[in-house]
Each structure stands twice: as structure tokens, then as C-alpha cells.
Write a structure and sequence with these properties.
The chain has about 170 residues and is of the alpha/beta class. The chain has a single domain, classed as ATPase, nucleotide binding domain (Nucleotidyltransferase, domain 5, 2-Layer Sandwich). Helix content is about 35%, strand content about 20%. The protein has helices at about 5-10, 60-65, 75-100, 140-150, 155-160; strands at about 15-25, 30-40, 45-55, 110, 115, 135-140, 150-155. It has a five-stranded mixed β-sheet with strand order 3-2-1-4-7. Strands 5-6 form a two-stranded antiparallel sheet. Strand 1 (about 15-25) and strand 2 (about 30-40) form a beta hairpin. Helix 3 (about 75-100) runs parallel beside helix 4. The longest helix is centred in the middle third of the chain and has 26 residues, at about 75-100. The termini are far apart.
């Protein structure tokens, strides 16, 4: 069995799971990082917030992301470059946060990371109603996981939009 699958099975069977989740939205304000302790399953789940912080992104990072964020037309080459660069930048921010706060990755079962949302325009705001709720997340999560060195769960917003729901609120 693949070691990541084995680790995931072990985590699921633990009575208490420690998860670190983070969200970047548009990176205008930085990364929101939340540490949670989860116990139970299904309808008997219990979630306790253990820590929360917002880490500001550098102006250079914000400037690069702004070039493709919620634009009618963008350079595809730039988008591809950002896909990998954002993963590296996010992982550096997370690792420096861990070091600064003396948090060990060993105590965290997995990280949840959706990536960088580019253009969340829900269907109700679109002129052409035949298209579903869009969701484009960049910031290669596999590259992120390798750099972090821990199991990373991602693409949770894809599940919501696939089911017809909005990924998140519209950003103006």
C-alpha cells in the first residue's frame, strides 16, 4: 500500500486528529492559518480551534498574483509560472510560521490547502447561465506537499462547485 494512503488510513482511525488548514483567498491580506483538533465522525464530529493567525504576504507576491486575479484576459504562460511559484511561496510562509511559533509538523496529522482562488464568480452573477459555478485554484498542491513534507488534502472547493454550490463569496 502507498505510504500516504497508509498514513491517511491511520489518521482516519485516530480518536483525535490535528489539522492545520489555511486559505489565501486573493492573497490581498495574506494567508489565514487555523489549527484544529477534530474528534468523532459524521454527525458526531467535534471541532476545537486551537490556533489562528493571518500571515501577511509580501508586496511582490501580491503584485504578481494581481496580474492574473479576476481579469478578463491573462497571459497563460504567466498563469503556469504562478501555479508553481505560489506553491513554493505558500510553503515558505507556512514553514516560517512553524519555525517562528515553534510548531512541529510531527504533531499535525495533515494540512488542508485549497490553493489560490483566481476568479470566483458564482453562476448567479454570470451572463451566460449554461456554465456551472467556476472555480480555478492555482498553486500546485503536490509541489506544496513535497516542500512541506506532510500529507496535504486539497481541492475541497472543487467538490462544492461540482455539486452545484458556490466555492466562496464573490470578491470585488
Amino acid at each position: 500500500m502507498n505510504s500516504d494512503i497508509r498514513k491517511l488510513c491511520e489518521i482516519v482511525n485516530k480518536p483525535v486528529r490535528n489539522i492545520l488548514g489555511f486559505m489565501s483567498e486573493t492573497s490581498r491580506d495574506g494567508l489565514d492559518i487555523e489549527g484544529c483538533e477534530i474528534s468523532g465522525f459524521d454527525k458526531q464530529i467535534n471541532l476545537v480551534q486551537r490556533a489562528f493567525d493571518t500571515i501577511s504576504c509580501e508586496d511582490d507576491f501580491k503584485k504578481e498574483v494581481e496580474e492574473v486575479l479576476s481579469k478578463e484576459q491573462i497571459c497563460l504562460k504567466k498563469l503556469c509560472l504562478l501555479h508553481h511559484w505560489i506553491a513554493g511561496t505558500h510553503s515558505k510562509i507556512i514553514l516560517s510560521c512553524f519555525k517562528k511559533r515553534q510548531i512541529l509538523l510531527k504533531g499535525i496529522d495533515f494540512l488542508e490547502s485549497p490553493g489560490q482562488n483566481l476568479d470566483p464568480v458564482p453562476k448567479k452573477f454570470q451572463k451566460n447561465k449554461r456554465f456551472p459555478n467556476p472555480n480555478l485554484q492555482i498553486g500546485n498542491r503536490i509541489r506544496f506537499a513535497v516542500r512541506i513534507g506532510n500529507l496535504v488534502i486539497s481541492d475541497n472547493r472543487q467538490k462544492y462547485t461540482a455539486g452545484g454550490r458556490e466555492s466562496n463569496k464573490i470578491i470585488c
